Amino acid sequence: MLEVLGPAFMRWKEYFPTLNIDRINKELAEIVHTRSSSFDVPTRTPTFCPGCPHRDSSTVSLELKQKFNEKGSDVVFHGEAGCHSMLQYAPHEGLMQSYSGMGLGGGTGAGMDPFVTNKQVVFLGDSTFFHSGIIAVSDSIKNNQNITYIILENKTTAMTGHQPTPGNDVDVMGKPTFAQDIERTLRGLAPDGIFIARVNPADREKYQPFLEETVLKPGVKVIIADKECAITLHRRKNAEKKIILKQQGFLAREEKINITPEVCEYCLECTRQTACPGLTVEETPHGRKIATDRSTCVDDGACARTKACPSFERMIIERSQPTGSADRVVLKWDDVPAVTPPSFDHKWSAYTAGVGGMGAGVVNAVLVRAGMTEKYEVGFLDKKGLAIRNGGVYGHIVFSKDEHISTPVIPYGKADLLVGLDALEAARALDARTNLRVAHPARTHAVVNTHKNETVLSLMGRQDFDPATLENVIRAKVRLGGYLSADFSELSENYLGSKLYANMMILGAAYQKSWLPLTETSLMDAIAQSVRASDVEVNQRAFQIGRYVSVHPEMLHPDYARETAASLVEKNAALLKARRRFGGARHALLYRERMTQAMRWMDTTPETTAFVARAVYDLIRYGGIKLADRYLELVWVTYRKDQKKFDFRATKAVVQGLYRTFAIKDEVWVAELLTSPEKYERDRKRYNLDASRGDRVRYLHYNRPRFQIGPWAIEFDVLTRDWMLRIMARAGVLRRLLPMWHADEKVFQRWYVRMVERFTFFESAQDYECYAQALEIHEKARGYREIRAPRMDAAMKEAEALLAQIGKTQHEKIFSPS
Asked: What DSSP letter does each residue of 507-561 carry, written as one string?
């Protein structure tokens, strides 16, 4: 094995007679084994934090750049070190042409100024302005350069840990001092004055046109984008909330940003514009939908300001008494065995992997403190990087009984425990291309959180990954029987009201499996030392729940009861019966009869039959029993020509495609979806609302209705209340009075129906594949209005190209979308 080190090493052996050749061979064998592990692990690029004020400035700047590009010009944007460095990455990666060191963005613009006619914009942080950026601004003013500076005044040095800036009234030690003012400083640089304006970047309606007007002005212009850093703002707000909760046990008023999944089209415009980690993807009965993450969303409304769709709403929740404990698990310790911590010979090491905000640093701190309590020599290394910006966070912890720790970095294959707070980042630790490769199948145990933490690119639909696939990779690299996994984030949210305590649950599970060489006492003491005093109790509780669920597999992987088609039919029939405007008892009976027949003849998957039950219920509400019958008729026409050997793929496509094209999300249908009883019931469960306790909720819906009246299109923004939507939900007559209303969607609907009608029995698997793909093309025609229209055109062309590949004897062209 030593031959891999080369002949030079072999000649040196005679000078080192005490070398332990067997041990060296063993170590080299482990290195060779671990470096052979290579697989695809998606990238996790950084982004702005939820609520970051820079997201607003970058979004309007990107709009400005696109507008200039459409006119054949280009605005050159410069950036430098700071939070706005995130502009190099998705979704704003096309914005900046240059990135330079701290304070040098203005210098780059100044160097270009004599040689270009383009308008130039320089992003500059407020702390950077005082550090060195002021020199560049001064030079630009002195030489009358044509540059616009956007000074991002978030009132902290956020990129490096929230140190104060000269603009704060405290120094780095927290002592009171005077605050320097950016605006007054700038005005002192020019005797005759320059254009300076202070704006709130959150007011995008005014900010975008104002930015365009300012950039077009000659000379030096300065815009001070004044909005506090989201982290410092919400730390302060959360501290205030905790005081109120401690005093009265509840918050009398809260505001939440909510997304109604039935209205969401999953067009991904909101995520593509913001890439906000406060948004996530949820699997719903109607497929994948965007949702707000209850644990990370700060409810600042940046996603709603994209005006992508009317699924966004602001909820004002009012309470008059405590909601009761969110901790809904009862621990029965009779069947939970006592733990004997494992022993180790010389060294023991743990590798932690997570995403910023998951508490990986807290886990590391707890392990380090507990190890010191146990009198081990402890070495540790935290790699935080872009932690608070959705980046990966990693930690190496090494315990030693009798050997000196020369480095805290865990050698290849030497981790005794892999703590995977995030499955993707845990898998990254095993990929040879990362130069980590810490796990070994003869040594390593692993506890892994299977909750899918979306990357920026997966949130935007540019990539995807499956935690189950990552689990298989990790399981193959650790000890047989040494792997434990669960969606600890979901367990934490269900039992403790937030995903933020999943880290302590994972630690508790590892302890109960006897994979930590630490006592319960030292761990509980370490938790108390590592979190805020107000959070000690809930974190220790999470640790104990983690212990408990590790010996109760039914809690780790709960078998959630999925709604069957039969149960859905009964529930929906009861809803129809209770709402007379949808036919009351008569239509409830007809619905039940139709679905009973459909469940008899439809032999696909339970999920498909359940989708049909929902679709028929919705279509009765949308257009009456005739529309629902037409839907079932076309589904039956497809099904009887479909084949089980193809897994009824065409039928499954038609079941969803017909529903989406029939139930056009016009203003009437959207109003119904936003005010339906089932929507209200889901919101009550999601936010723990109970009218019997006096809980009340009011909605402000972000709507942008559009009406086509003859040649005129009328569109406007409005914050609607529920009473307004209830009136609109009863205005179905508008569909007849305004025949050109949603005309594009009606063209697509007719085209799709004709394609369904021409589906036939296929002998050729290749021909069937082409037709099935064409029937699935509706998935690519998502969105509202200007977003959806070009997608529908592209989808029809793509489908016709697929159909053209089918044998001429079985296909004639459907019909032109024109």
From this structure: HHHHHHTT-SSS-HHHHHHHHHHHS-GGGHHHHHHHHHHHHHHHT-HHHHS----
